[in-house]
Amino acid sequence: MSDSASSLEDLASLTREEAEERASLLEVHRYDVAMDLRGLLDGELLEATSTVVFSCRNPGADTFVDCTGEIRHATLNGVSIDPATASRGRLPLPDLQADNVLVVASSQTDTATAHGIKRTVDPSDKNVYLWTSFEPDMARRVFANFDQPDLKAVHGFTVSAPETWTVLSNSRHSSVDELPDGGRLWTFEDTPRLSTYVTVVNAGPFYEVRAERDGYDLGLFCRQSLRAQLDRDAPELFQLTQQGLAWFGEKFGVPFGQEKYDQVFVPDLGGAMENWGCVTWGDGVLLRGTPTYDQRRRIALILLHEMAHMWFGDLVTMKWWDDLWLNEAFASWAATWAAVGATSYTDSWAGYLVADKQEGYRVDLGPASHPIRGDVPDVSQAMANFDAISYNKGQAVLRQLSAYAGDEAFLEGLRAYFRDHAWGNTRLEDLTGAIGAACGEDLTGWQKDWLDRAGTDTLTLEGAPGHWQLRATGPHGEPARPHRLDIGCYAVDGQALRHVADVSVTTTAELTDLELPACDLRLVNDHDLTFAAARPDPDSLAFVLSHAGRLPSPLSRALAVATAYDMLVKGELSAEDTLTCILGVLEEETVVGVTEPFLKLAGLVAGLYSPVDKILERRTRVADRAALLAANSDLRTGALQSLAANAVTDDHFAQLDEASVDDFALAWRVEATRAARGRYDAEAVERLLERDPDPDAEVNALIVRASRNLPEAKEEAWHALYVDRSVPGGPSTGQMIGAFWRPEQREVLLPFTDRYLEEIPALAGGGMLRVFGLVLGMFPEVGTQEFLDKALAMARAEGTDPTIRAALLGGVDTLVRELRARGELA
């Protein structure tokens, strides 16, 4: 076995300097990748032969190709290369010619850990499925390549697979032929010029649904055991795909570049991946119970997010990871923009503000904050920047850029960017330059302020009628950024609030003089156009915290609730007052697009920011409100899920038991909460297991057991998460985390805080979409000062992986704020 089959910890992380040197030296023309998956039907072996055609601008120079599997043999221009020369996932390539052909045959047996590739056996029918997900540098785990985003090339895949399997890749297959030694050979059409990280091969005995829409051939795939869920969701998924392709194609001025657009739902994948023409999803989004409105909205946003990457990321790709994480900001912005403009989810900006933007504020507030464009010296640091700054704050900052430049100029700049750089690589300046040219303004300063600086500004309305000023203060004593925002003015009209005017403001200094009409309430950053902590004047703040439900638009009500939550996180408002504000809004709220996010935020405040002896009382209040909202047919499904998460009383559980008779997903939630309240019913769990057709039903039973306030219950869950890795990525991992960390179970959980610190170093460098649940998601929700000190010491220790460091810094900051709100820390 060559040294290239080293453990993950031993693999070299490509540096920016190495990538720049290799890109200046090479032009890659094409990859022909022959993969053999037949060894995966009953084992763990994947074989690949990669033929790379590339040019060298400096003949005689040396470089290396990336390959982390066992190299069986390799030739460069017909001359053998000794596999033993490979080290740390790199095979040296000496004495390059002007035109080169490299052939590397390799094998990989690490196909069970989700590091770029995952073989999964469905527990219900024993069918085997395979997915790949290569961001940021995991393509090297499957085939030899130059694994960096700015060495784009045409890819031609041929795949040998078991005869019962369907194989999917970026392009349409051109033929499927029987192999003389068993199985079938799938040959795929050439891709356009793609970065290696957005190529894909998925395989297994998939269930398939297809539709023709607007000239596109749309495919949906899932494992056989979830065909009922896919059949249920397919009409909306096809409609959303049709709407998204039409919207983006028109607005960006470039139609999607091929007829085939597949979406593949696979087991044990957390999140989704924007592979060109073949998006891979974790199949946890094929919900096993009745989807709520907010769950459907989130699925729509994922679909549109990954689709937006077909343009921003796949068609045009940033050169290196310092700029490339802007992909996520753009796709998140584009998804919400398209959801509002092209689908039925028209309240998505309000839902984003309550459910997602707050996470961006939270991370930006603490020591794990970083610029949207940060310093990324190597790929391992890129992993650390894959967080709420890239996604949630980045989305808000791009919305601010659209407001600042003007929506039409912003779109005109995007169209020019896609037109001028199609199938190429860019830097951030290419994007801001195109938008700046469209709006007639040099955006260099704006870019530096917003994309190269960390932290959140605060916008505070000061003064009195006739002399209003908006004070803009930057983080850490720095000057504030320029902001384009609206101040909404409202007047009391009986029991309602009447919208009087929107006053448009562009800040250029610390103080901006304003002329505001006479009104009773002034709402800073109404319509949520910028990313800043908004503070209205004291009279308006007191009024809005008490009467936010009277505001006339969902987005304004969302802003009021978000302001209260931001004040709680910063220690400016108690959990009691924050919860009272949210529940006050929910007394009057009827818009389905914000009801569920409000309920979820209320549950978070009750469960994580309340003193332990107040948790059940506050959860009771949330549950009581959810129980009433469940009487509204439009709100019922989401309200019942909130009731299930917060139930305390016999009446709560009686209502839930009646509602969950035929809804297994709801029934599992009810049993988990019942177990957390000390009412674990082993017989009820067994009955559910017997009735539930979900192939992952046993995981749900484990989540119920993990909810108990018992050391053995937590131990069983810990073993499943960190030893067996048997909890599927995606929603199941999230539910397990919520079941595990319950502040009211503090004494049982404290020993696991140190164990968390023991486990996470081994997770460094692993598969991005799976591991982040075990690193970021599993940061403890309980702790002592001793644990906080240990976590900070680990974060600051020399040699700590950047991803681990970021998780620790952010986790400590959040836990400190929660513990202070609970009264457990001074």
Structure notes:
Helix content is 43%, strand content 21%. It is α+β, with helices and mostly antiparallel strands and 826 residues long. Among the domains are: 1-205, Sandwich (Immunoglobulin-like); 346-451, Neutral Protease Domain 2 (Neutral Protease, domain 2, Orthogonal Bundle). The strands form eight sheets. The chain has an eight-stranded mixed sheet. Helix 13 (554-569) runs parallel beside helix 15, helix 16 (615-629) packs antiparallel against helix 17 and helix 21 (697-706) runs parallel beside helix 23 (731-740). Residues 1-6 have low confidence and may be disordered.
Q: Features of this protein?
A:
Neutral Protease, domain 2; alpha+beta; 43% helix; Immunoglobulin-like; five-stranded mixed β-sheet; eight-stranded mixed β-sheet; 826 residues
